[in-house]
Specification:
Radius of gyration: 34 Å
Largest sheet: 9 strands, mixed
Bound molecules: S-adenosylmethionine
Number of strands: 29
Oligomer: single chain
Strand order of the largest sheet: 12-11-10-13-14-16-15-17-18
Distance between the termini: 22 Å
Strand content: 5-15%
Low-confidence stretches: 1-61, 519-539, 644-649, 980-987
Length: 987
């Protein structure tokens, strides 16, 4: 028994039978406590407890990689100004004017080196006398201030040479001052952008994207009609042609270095008036076979261009008009060295050029090659490499492998600018080249047809770029493995076939893009819902070969899907599940791939939001996939899908590979804490991405285990008239006895976690008459009645009869265990707690009314959080609790009386540990970075006790926890199916 003494005038001293609810930071709080003798005081409610203090916001740098490249290039072109350089350099990396001002004044410059500027946590740079750059860099590196200010870089320059060092990696650069912009990728961490290796080594992709971006924007300004929907395709096609020309003139595909750029520069007037005519003539030449040139009446200077066509230069050769500025931008873009362009990276970046809403983030949505390989390696590349290794020098086995590869199709049905296809192609060419080397045929032409790399893409511009990217990749591979001459000999004219279909992948028949293997039929992709698309028929070189489907389709939660997208999913699932629920859009690609697999054998792997392997999505999507006969072959469990923008949180994704069942073990790839990858093998993978049987957790009305019943809190349906803030209490004019009778504290998720202080009017039927005599209560009851009567909902109208009450009137007679329905995913434990009999819940929390305290030990355990995170799914990224899906399905071994006593003690210890930190809120206490030691310890102890009940020791990790839970769930549900709704007896 606990005694709670009020400090609020008018509140009584209470005797509580149970531990205080410990809603720290709210009205009930502990003043002095001993473990066996609780004596508490009510705390003054009117003083809100301040939530966690946050540190001062860090100044953020908002420039993206493309903008930084442009700024650094501009700086390198300016005459060197020794005094100004350090500040101009920092400004180019996105430092704000105010930051620069403070450095300039010396207020924040921590350097003691002459000519030096030291920006804390960033860089120590200095301008020095001519010829002493090396010594100055050394002085900066060894300077104690560099260390104490935690500089990440040192840089020294004399205006002729520039040297710098990344102090974290030890990497250094030395450059002519004029060329230092080429190393801008090295310095990107200064702008908070963690650079991926490809960009650092080869910044051309960012520079090219920046140049084309400017050109695109300005051309559209000068030619607004090209920005209309009707001409969008022409504009995109025009940009693809330009990119081809820039690449071709730098790689000897055109006869003469910089032929295109020079032609435009020399033949078009400086005032730009005829630039479009010159470019148009060049395009026409590339669309005219050499034999037809005379008849085409091309200007002689255009005759030097080869016949290219292949669809790229066919159709209208209309060109937008140029201004002086856009002509200059065109020449600037041509001035870059396009030879080193990475078709995978560049394609991904350049696609943003044509997207109005994406353009601002240009260069930031690049998907790294290692991440793409996480899909392609387990899908089929690992197997090819293993075969290559096993073949050793055996010419016949190597030949068979080469033949096998020539019949492999790779199909990305959401291909964007084709990066998955390009990387798959390049990787296969590398394997083929190794085969040829071992067979003593190093210069042999490739047998891998580019047309076996296919895609569907919704948007026009990326679809254009995807095809171009593959063409460029093929040429670069030919140069690498066969030599420049051979590459050139094979390159032109381009193949007229189109491997990238522009359309909606969820509507198109995939057999139209990738016909059944062995059919050898020419097929045109059918649009199953709309008019046929304008497509070139494609023959296939894959007779009897394998098909691998891959990609990174769009993830769109239900609320972000358009009506058409929702309809796509509904159509796909029609007749296969009761409802398509809130499935993410990406789920459609899994269904389509499995359906496609019933017609032609394939293995498919997609990157996906992890939501399709959590919560209710599992029971909607996966049974439909399994029904086709397809199974999960391999999977990567959740990880962050990072891109170039380290200042943008990546989404959490999984990779799931599906195919027909085989005898080969299933592989599960997991990231360890050091971001290494562990591979585990088993006979099958669950749709929750654990090793184990293919079970799908179904909602239950009653707990599967012998646990107390968990119910929703009380939906007010009151228009706000039964709820009040504690400071409104006085206005009701109630005496102490009336407050005791008619007022209760009420919590939803948010106020339980963050320390809110709401109250509610609580009138039992037996006290209604008395309440009606109190004016303030009577008025509130009447207001609720009006709200309910006015509601369009019939249920609400019926409730008007008991307008004195919330829709439900659940409250513990002694206590209630509270479980917030939504809570942050950052916490290590679910923020459950206990409230007394004078406290009730809204429908935004669940309650176990008068339940034994050991139930709280279960809910507050790590193993329960892992179960909830997996089977209940998330609301955005937060945990979404469900009693029917999470609590009623939670598998718990039979608990002995001793187990229950031990767990009760653990729950009490957790509550007491919280109390020791009054007035901290639950949010404060469970801040993962600042969780108090005693509370952490109490939870550890709780986990220890509970996990010993499960397996006799602590689990090694969450994966082991989940696997045990699924194993137990499978056993328990086999013995007691979901339809068994009988209430279990509680000890
Ligand atoms: C996440 S991006 C991936 C693209 C590319 N693989 C990459 O990494 O940049 C998804 C792509 O799917 C395309 N897409 C969206 N809905 C589509 C649909 N219904 N059919 C085909 N493609 C679609 C988008 O335009 C986008 O290019």
């Amino acid at each position: 028994m606990a005694i709670v003494e009020s400090r609020l005038p008018g509140w009584p001293t209470l005797s509580l039978h149970v531990l205080n609810p410990l809603r720290l930071g709210s009205a009930f709080a502990l003043d002095g406590i001993s473990y066996h003798n609780y004596s508490w005081k009510l705390h003054n409610d009117a003083e809100p407890f301040v939530a966690a203090a946050h540190g001062p916001a860090r100044a953020t740098i908002t420039m993206n990689a493309v903008e930084i490249e442009a700024a650094v290039s501009a700086l390198a072109l300016e005459p060197f100004d020794a005094a100004e350089f350090p500040f101009a350099f920092l400004a180019a990396f996105g430092n704000k004017e105010t930051t620069i001002k403070r450095l300039r004044k010396g207020e924040s410059n921590a350097s003691d080196v002459p000519g030096g500027v030291l920006q804390r946590n960033n860089i120590h740079l200095a301008v020095c006398e001519s010829g002493v750059v090396g010594e100055t860099l050394k002085a900066l590196r060894t300077n104690p201030k560099t260390v104490s200010a935690k500089a990440k870089f040192v840089l020294a320059t004399d205006g002729e040479t520039l040297e710098a060092e990344d102090l974290t990696s030890g990497e250094t650069i030395t450059s002519d001052y004029r060329d230092f912009a080429r190393h801008f990728g090295f310095f990107l961490p200064l702008a908070g952008i963690s650079t991926i290796k490809e960009i650092k080594d080869n910044p051309i992709d960012v520079r090219a994207t920046g140049r084309l971006n400017k050109l695109y924007i300005e051309l559209l300004k000068d030619n607004p009609e090209w920005a209309t929907e009707a001409r969008r395709h022409d504009m995109n096609h025009f940009m693809a042609r330009l990119i081809f020309c820039f690449f071709a003139e730098d790689t000897d595909i055109f006869n003469g270095a910089s032929l295109f750029t020079k032609t435009v520069e020399q033949m078009s007037a400086r005032d730009s008036s005829n630039t479009h005519e010159v470019v148009g003539a060049v395009f026409r030449a590339m669309n005219t076979k050499i034999a037809d040139r005379a008849a085409a009446k091309l200007p002689s200077w255009a005759d030097g261009f080869p016949y290219v066509n292949g669809g790229l230069f066919s159709g209208s050769t209309d060109v937008p008009r140029f201004s002086r500025m856009t002509r200059t931008y065109l020449l600037h873009a041509g001035g870059l060295s396009w030879r080193e362009i990475n078709p995978d990276i560049f394609g991904s970046m350049i696609q943003a050029v044509a997207e109005d809403e994406e353009r601002g983030a240009l260069g930031m949505h690049y998907t790294s090659v290692p991440n793409i390989l996480k899909v392609l390696n387990p899908l089929f590349l690992d197997d090819l490499r293993a075969q290559l290794q096993a073949a050793g020098g055996n010419a016949r086995v190597l030949l068979n492998l080469r033949k096998r590869m020539a019949r492999i199709r790779v199909f990305d049905p959401a291909c964007g600018s084709g990066n998955f296809l390009v990387i798959a192609y390049k990787q296969m060419r590398a394997i083929e080249a190794e085969i040829n080397r071992r067979r003593g045929e190093p210069g042999l032409s490739s047998e891998i047809p580019l047309t076996n790399f296919r895609g569907i893409e919704l948007r026009d511009f990326p679809a254009e770029i995807a095809r171009l990217a593959l063409v460029i990749a093929e040429f670069q591979c030919d140069v690498l493995y066969l030599g420049q001459m051979e590459a050139l000999a094979e390159f032109l004219p381009l193949d007229a076939m189109n491997w990238i279909t522009c359309g909606n992948a969820l509507e198109l028949d995939w057999l139209g893009v990738c016909p059944s293997t062995g059919s050898g039929v020419k097929l045109v992709s059918d649009d199953l819902f709309q008019t046929p698309l304008d497509q070139v028929e494609i023959d296939f070189e894959n007779e009897g070969g394998e098909t691998y489907i891959c990609g990174n389709p769009p993830y769109l939660g239900f609320t972000w899907q358009s009506a058409e997208q929702k309809a796509d999913i509904r159509t796909l699932l029609k007749g296969r599940t009761a409802s398509s629920g809130f499935l993410d859009y990406v789920a459609g690609w899994f269904i389509k791939a499995a359906d496609y697999g019933t017609r032609t054998n394939c293995v498919a792997a997609f990157v996906s939001t992890n939501s399709i392997c959590q919560g209710q999505s599992v029971s909607i999507l996966w049974p439909a996939v399994f029904e086709t006969g397809y199974d999960i072959r391999f999977a990567y469990t959740s990880f962050k899908w990072s891109n170039l923008a380290s200042n943008k949180a990546g989404v959490t994704v999984v990779i799931v590979g599906i195919g027909l069942p085989t005898s080969a073990p299933r592989r599960l790839y997991l990231h360890d804490e050091q971001n290494g990858v562990l591979v585990r093998e088993g006979a099958s993978i669950t749709p929750y991405l654990t090793l184990g049987p293919r079970i799908v957790v179904q909602k239950r009305d009653q707990p599967l285990s012998a646990l107390s019943v968990m119910e929703f809190g009380n939906k007010p349906s009151d228009g706000g008239h039964l709820l009040l803030q504690s400071e409104e209490l006085a206005s009701l004019g109630l005496d102490v006895a009336q407050r005791n009778r008619f007022i209760r504290r009420i919590y939803g998720s948010d106020d339980f976690i963050n320390g809110g202080s709401r109250l509610c009017v609580w009138i039992e039927d037996c006290h209604l008459e008395e309440a009606q005599f109190i004016d303030s209560l009577k008025a509130r009851i009447e207001a609720v009645r009006q709200v309910r009567l006015a509601s369009p909902d019939k249920g609400a109208n019926a409730l008007a009869k008991r307008a004195h009450q919330l829709k439900l009137m659940r409250i513990g007679t002694q206590s209630c265990i509270v479980v917030p329905s939504v809570s942050s995913e950052r916490r290590h434990y679910l923020p459950a707690g206990l409230v007394d009999h004078r406290t009730t819940l809204t429908n935004l929390a669940f309650g176990l009314y008068d339940a034994p305290l050991w139930n709280l030990a279960l809910i507050a355990s790590r193993i329960h959080l892992v179960w909830i995170a997996t089977v209940c799914g998330k609301l955005e990224s937060r945990y979404r609790y469900s009693n029917t899906l999470g609590w009623n399905t939670f598998p718990v071994p039979t608990l002995t009386d001793q187990n229950k006593a031990d767990l009760t003690r653990c729950a009490e210890d957790i509550l007491l540990a919280r109390e020791a930190h009054f007035p901290a809120t639950i949010a404060d206490l469970y801040d993962p970075e600042n969780m108090p030691e005693n509370l952490r310890h109490a939870h550890e102890r709780n986990d220890e006790v509970l996990e010993r009940i499960y397996i006799g020791r602590r689990f090694r990790n969450d994966t082991e926890r989940l696997e045990k839970l699924f194993e137990l769930y499978t056993k328990m549900t086999a013995a007691q199916p979901a339809s068994n709704r009988k209430r279990k007896t509680l000890a």
